[in-house]
Amino acid sequence: GAGVSQSPRYKVAKRGQDVALRCDPISGHVSLFWYQQALGQGPEFLTYFQNEAQLDKSGLPSDRFFAERPEGSVSTLKIQRTQQEDSAVYLCASSTTTEETQYFGPGTRLLVL
Amino acid sequence: AQSVTQLDSQVPVFEEAPVELRCNYSSSVSVYLFWYVQYPNQGLQLLLKYLSGSTLVESINGFEAEFNKSQTSFHLRKPSVHISDTAEYFCAVIHPGGADGLTFGKGTHLIIQP
Fold first, then answer.
1. Residues on A contacting B at a C-beta cutoff of 8 Å
2. What is residue B84's three-state secondary structure?
3. When you count CB atoms within 10 A of the terminal residue's CB, does the N or C end of chain A come out lower?
4. Distances from the Cα of B69 to the Cαs of A29, A54, A112, B1, B96, in angstroms?
């Protein structure tokens, strides 16, 4: 594909529901990052994958957040038992290496009611 | 750990006037610096970056930024803005090895007034 794609673009969940957010990175990109962007704020790092290995998950806000990239390409961010404070835009980015330009997807806007 | 400060949340500027968006960072190790732009209803796009070499870097649409190590700054400038430059601008840093991702500032909303 031409760029990073994410689905769904919008998700409304009732508090307590589980959600799964998908990221398709640019083909061949080794590095994949997830960020959370609250309204009016800059993106904040959640987790990082190098191929299928999750090398850093220090930004995940709680153990309700889980990410995987089992085959080193597509990644899924799962949020269990969603809370209202989880409402945000979730951004995925990929790059050839960690220092090089990160290419961002359009994001998934999650609203928890 | 590193941090990025963008002091101005909004900058209103008249069309064809110059603009400077300020960015300061704090880090105990060397960092790479980036400016990303987010146009209305679009995703983040790289505007320009500094990795090494010349401290003045330029984008294809007339923006430039200068890395100043002594002042730990990476301010973004454009000599003459256009209405199409209306967007949110984010300054970000990453340290070499970067497994903890980019650290972003809170963003500056550039508002171009006709």
1. 4, 33, 35, 40-46, 48, 50, 55-56, 58-59, 91, 93, 98-99, 101-107
2. helix
3. N
4. 31, 32, 42, 17, 16
Q: Which tokens sit at B63?
A: 């923006």
How do residues A64-74 score in pLDDT, each as one tens digit?
999 999 999 99
Beta-bridge partners for B93: B33, B103
* C-alpha distance across the termini of chain B, in Å: 41
A19-54: burial string, b at 16+ Cβ within 10 Å, e else: bebebbbbeebebbbbbbbeeeebbbbbbbbbeeeb
Tokens 């990073």 belong to A4
Three-state DSSP string of B21-58: ECCEEECCCCCEEEEEEECCCCCEEEEEEECCCCCEEE
CA distance B22 to A9: 31
CA nearest to A60 within chain B: B100
In angstroms, the CA A49 to CA A25 distance is: 11
pLDDT tens digits, B41-91? 888 999 999 988 888 999 988 999 999 999 999 999 999 999 999 999 999
| Closest C-alpha to A34, from A16, A52, A21 | A21
- The C-alpha of B102 sits at a distance from chain A's nearest C-alpha, in angstroms, of 7
Which residues in chain B touch residue A98, judged by CB atoms under 8 angstroms apart? 94, 97-99
Locate tokens 């957010």: which residue? A21
> Is A40 in Cβ contact with B101 (below 8 Å)?
no
